[in-house]
TrEMBL record:
Single GO term (MF): metal ion binding
UniProt entry tagged with the keyword Hydrolase: no
Name under which the protein is recorded: Initiation-control protein YabA
Any Gene Ontology biological process: negative regulation of DNA replication
Coiled coil: 10-51
Keywords on record: Coiled coil, Cytoplasm, DNA replication, DNA replication inhibitor, Metal-binding, Zinc
UniProt KW DNA damage keyword: no
């Protein structure tokens, strides 16, 4: 193997290493972007989880109030807990329809 051929092989190898270094840098940047996006999505997911849990609690509370009303008691702030004797209460109904 002559010196010229050896020099060409080393130059080609050096060029390939340079290309791999550039590709490695691009991959590293992509990983950073993906990690940042993952963190952002995790935080957003946690906020949604908390919102859904909060909505479930509200929904469950409304269901309980509906059940109390259906059992014949007032749920409005005017007569809360007292027996409904005159039929439908507009205040209770407006509260349930919110």
């Amino acid at each position: 193997m002559d010196k010229q051929s050896l020099f060409v092989q080393v130059a080609n190898l050096e060029e390939r290493i340079g290309e791999l270094y550039v590709e490695l840098g691009a991959l590293k940047q992509k990983i950073v972007e993906l990690l940042e996006e993952n963190q952002r999505l995790s935080q957003e997911n946690e906020r949604w989880r908390n919102a859904v849990t909060h909505d479930d609690v509200l929904s469950s509370g409304r269901e309980n109030l509906r059940r109390i009303y259906d059992e014949g008691f007032h749920i409005c702030n005017l007569k809360y807990g007292s027996l409904r004797t005159e039929g439908e209460c507009l205040f209770c109904m407006s509260f349930l329809n919110k």
